[in-house]
Amino acid sequence: MSLRMHSGPFPLAPALRALLLAGILPLAVGCGGGGESTGSSAGGAGGSGEQVLTVATAEVASSVDPAMAFDTWSTAIVHAVTRRLVDYDQDAKLIPDLAERWETSSDGKTYTFHLKPDAKFADGTPIEAKHFQSAIRRVQDPETGSPGADFYAGISEVEAPDARTLVVKLKAPDPTLPNVMGMTFAAPIQENPDPMRPVSSGPYQLETFEPGSQVVLKKNPNDTAAAGWVDRIVIQLKVEEPLQMTRLRNGEVDLLPGIPPAEYARVMNDPSEKDNVAQGVVNQTWYFGVNVTHAPWDNPRVREAAFLALNRANQVSVAGAGQVANAILPPYVPAYDASRKLPDQNVARAKQLLQEAGYTPGKKSVMWLSNSAVYQRRAELIQSDLAAIGIPVELRPVTFSEYRKGYRNDADCWYGGWYPDFPDAGNFLEPVFHSRNIGPGKNNAAHYRNPQVDTLLEKARITPPGDERIALYRQAEDILLKDLPWMPLYYEMETRYFRDNVEGVVVHPVWRQMLTGIRKQ
Amino acid sequence: MIAFLVKRLLWAMVILLGVTMLTFVVVYRIPADPAAMQAGASASPETIARIRHRLKLDRPVWEQYLTFLSRLTRGDLGESFSERRPVAEAIRERLPATIQLALAGWTAWLVLGTLLGVWVAARPTRLREGALLFFSILGVSTPTFWIGIVLLALFVGRLHLLPAGGMGTWKHLILPVTALAVTGVAYYARLAHSSMTETLRQDFIRTATAKGVAPRAILWRHALRNALLPLVTIAGTDLAALLGGVVFTETVFDWKGMGQLAVSAVGTLDIPVIVGVVLVSAVFVVLANLAVDLLYPFLDPRIRVEE
């Protein structure tokens, strides 16, 4: 249940980056052609024949402590240096990892996980139930101040009756507990660890961590799954986009988490670059949200008209990559219904609906958005689509942190992006549409109140995974798509860009940024 | 002299105290919540409250300020919100890189700028003066980061002569220093030129010339010393400003210095780091001003440090 605007963590940086790109890219483009100075990658200390993968990002990784890591790169690093009870395959399906199997009690309040027999930490210590117990207790401890504490608040007790059995008791039934146990917060930890030097339980282990500069991972020899993957991964932090491209061309960097906007079209239209790009849709819906208690959005017909006025395909072309959304739920949650089809833009019908609704243009609706150029352009499209049918909207671009506060504080409307913390419809829908979450600072910024939806969401939440649960969430989504407190626009698509000799790069629908499974020729 | 020093150092303390107080007021007036930034986008109000408590942001500002001051007396700048380690450690790690870049850039400004300015002033032709004026206006008005990007595109992207940013060898230093130097050299050349031209018109120069002092000695021994005076003041504060972090250059060239640290701290609202960097920069400015005052009497014996 999170929202994300890819504005990067630094308000200064995007502005600077935009200036830089505007100023110089004509020069940089075409300079490349691949300077083959293959040399050893920066920071990649190591013996001969060792394969080093160097990644550069403009962002930072603030923590490698599993209890604290929550930003993109911290999570990617903790993901690479840990294994958890469960994992996800490339289709976002939950699969066992350190847990062989698990059972749920008949009241749905007790989960028993059975651990694999011979899993070990990188130092040789067998991974036992108590290590998961330590992790959960630490995340729950208020003194830790973990950003993940909420996910584990429903756990009343964690027991380790023997080395290979973990019993998790819940205050109320929660069929998403396995998903919660799959988050990096619940990765096994040894007692009294130095939180910033966690002992690895995964395919890689931490070699050095210099916050704001660079992180180096090396392969965990005890993890057989990592055979064939690169031996070391160097993550260069805080490298601005123009420099990222230069380093990639120089062979100093092998993989970039995206293609700078100014280069995007060139790379994607160049057939010879086809094998250097990986793309994938992730669980994130971009939408236009309205406050259903504010005029004119309090009129359902105005909302319907507004949706018909929007050109969703244009949103995708301005964003560069994406997939037009025909639902509110994103593609990789079990309740997603691929057969849904929302009506395309129809200005004439929209105008007619407005007329039927007796709409007269009133005060301008204020639309909140995060103030980077990319969101500005997408929001302007909505503004002009709505202006075409006579609904006046005024943009309010503010810094990301102001936006986050502002749109949840009785705003008229806003441009938003929302993604679930794990692939579950309830985790996505409840925070933003259940009437319990209406209030200043709370996530139901649409002020959407529908007892029927509330009931469906509550019922689905305690229904075990399966067809019944899926049906309940789909019913709730049917109603939401009729009421349209959110007008879905498109699904986020992420892009990776890498050198010819890099293989195995994927955009994972759940983990997004994945450092594991990468090979080099 | 000692009394002067003591007085100035006491004043410096007052100034630094004022700087920390102002910084505190400013960062706490920002309409954004550092705890929310740490908590991640989806966090519930309870999680944010918990993090606010851990970061001690739930205490009144004055109490946080007093805690800061009492820790400061022990040389402790507090702990970074986002990096979860002592601010002093983060700054200590990044200071050498900034000092290296700042000193190299500053030396280039001073030496090249002065030489260029003095040369044009001593052998003025219309072409030279015109060229100097053109170069200084262009240099001063071109943003450093833009120059940086152009240099990168040219020397790294096209010619593959130099590393693409980062640190380590002397080669890494070339482009950032060049980017930094363009503006500074342009400015100092202009300054040195006008100061020198002015000095060369003065009576004591004419007297020296009349007495038959060799032109070279007039230029380098008599005129330069006088002409340098205004430069010293500016050079002192400029060095201090550079030491506080070469923000744009460090960002463009991925130079792991204090400027980069400051930019990311502002982005993540890492208040202890912001306050720490501001304080260290202020210390440099105060010290530089003091050094400039102490240097004056050596350059101009007519100036005495007031007792």
Can you describe this structure?
The complex is a heterodimer of chains A (521) and B (307). Chain A is α+β, with helices and mostly antiparallel strands and 521 residues long. In chain A, helix 8 packs antiparallel against helix 10, helix 12 runs antiparallel to helix 13 and helix 13 runs antiparallel to helix 14. The N terminus of chain A is likely disordered. The longest helix of chain B has 36 residues. The model of chain B has no long low-confidence stretch (mean pLDDT 84). At the A-B interface, strand 1, helix 1, helix 5 and helix 11 of A face helix 2, helix 3, helix 7, helix 11 and helix 12 of B.
Ends apart, CA distance between termini of chain B? 6 Å
Estimate what percentage of residues of chain B fall within beta strands.
Answer: under 5%
Order of helices and strands of chain B: HHHHHHHHHHHHH
Radius of gyration of chain A: 24 Å
Rounded mean pLDDT of chain B is: 84
The shape of chain A is globular
Residue runs with pLDDT of under 50 for 5 or more positions of chain B? none
Give the distance, in angstroms, between the N- and C-terminal Cα atoms of chain A. Answer: 39 Å
- Report Rg of chain B: 24 Å
Structural class given helices, strands, pairing of chain A? alpha+beta
Number of helices of chain B: 13
